[in-house]
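Protocol step 6 of 9: fold each sequence in the batch and record its C-alpha cells directly after the sequence line. For illustration, a two-sequence batch is reproduced in full.

Sequence one:
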Amino acid sequence: MQNSTFKSILLVGSHANLYHRSMIESSNIPINTLKYKRKDPFAVDEPNQFIFNDIPIDFNGKYSLSELSFALSIIISQDPRFKQCLIIGDPTELIYQAFCFAKNDQNPNLIRQEIQIQPNKSKDAYLFLYPSGMVAHNIRKEISSLVYLLKKYKMNTFLIRDKNQSNIQILQNMLKRGEICFDLNILEVNGIERIISDQTAFTS
C-alpha cells in the first residue's frame, strides 16, 4: 500500500457539505468544499455555478456526467488545492461522480477502454457517505460506473456505513486520530470500511 499523507480534505456535494461546520472544529488540516448551485429559473442571465469555498464558478453546460466532469477537469488542473486530498461525498450525487472522473482524467463515455498511458500514481483517496433512504442493491446499480473507475485506477476507497454511529461522529473520530499527521491509517476507525485498495487487481 502506498504511504499517502493528505494535505487537505475536500467535501463534494450537498450531503458532504452538511458536515462542514462540525468537521472544521475537529480538523487540523484544511477542509475545502465544492458544491453545485442551480440557477434561479426566474433570474435573467444567471448561470448554474460550482461553489468552491464560497467562490462561484460559472457553468453553462448541461447537468450531465460528461459535461460536469469536463468542466471540473479544467478547474482541478488550475488549482493545487485539489492535489493529494481525501475526497468525501455521497457517491449517488452526480457532482461527486463527475468530480471523481475529472480527478482521474477519465472521459465517462470511454470508461470501458483500457488505459493507454499509465498516469502518475495519485495520492488521493475517496470516502463514500452512505446515501440515506437507499437500499444496498439500488446503490450498487447507481454507482457501478464510479466503482469501476476507482478500481480501474486502483484508488483507495472507503465507505461509512455504521448504523450505530452518526456520520459526523465517525468523521470527528477520524479527524481526532489525525492530529499529528493525516494518512490512510487514520481511516481505519470504527464505522469506516475499505472497499477498494490501491493493490486491487483490476479486470474489465
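Sequence two, same batch, same settings:
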Amino acid sequence: MKKLLFIATTLLISSQANAAAGCKASDLNGNYVTYQAAINHHFHTGKCEININKGLLTGHCAFDPTVSGDANYNGPVNGTATINTNCSAVMSMNFGPVESNFDIQFTPDKNSYIGKFENNFGVQGTSSGTRYSPLLSPTPAPLFPNEDERN
C-alpha cells in the first residue's frame, strides 16, 4: 500500500511540475482543431484542422457563409506559429488573399488555447483550439447544420 501511495504521489507531483513548467517551441508540435468567430463585420464562423511542426503550420479551413449569404473560404491554409515561455503564442494563417494573425494563450497542460485574431481586411474575432489525434476515427457530422436538420 505504501508503495502504491508513493507511486501515485510521485506521478501527481511530476504532472504538476510539467504543467507548471514554461512552454518551449516543441510544445506547439501537433494536430489541432480550431474554431473562429468573426465579431466586428463579415460575421461568420469557421473550423480549421491544422498541424504545427517546428513552427510551420499547414491544414484545411472551412468557413460558413456570411450573414448576407456570400460564399466563404473552404480550402488549404498555411503559416507559422511561435510560443513564448509563458505559453502565450502567435500564429499566422494564410488563406489565399487573407492573412490572419492570432494572439493566443495555451492552458497550463498545453492541450488547448483561447485567443483572438485579426486579418488583413480588418476582420477581428475570437479563436479557440484543442489538440486531437489523427489516428482516431472522425465522427461524421455536418460542419454547419441547417436549423431544420437539428430536430
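Proceed to step 7 once all outputs are recorded. Observation for sequence two: The longest strand covers residues 74-83.
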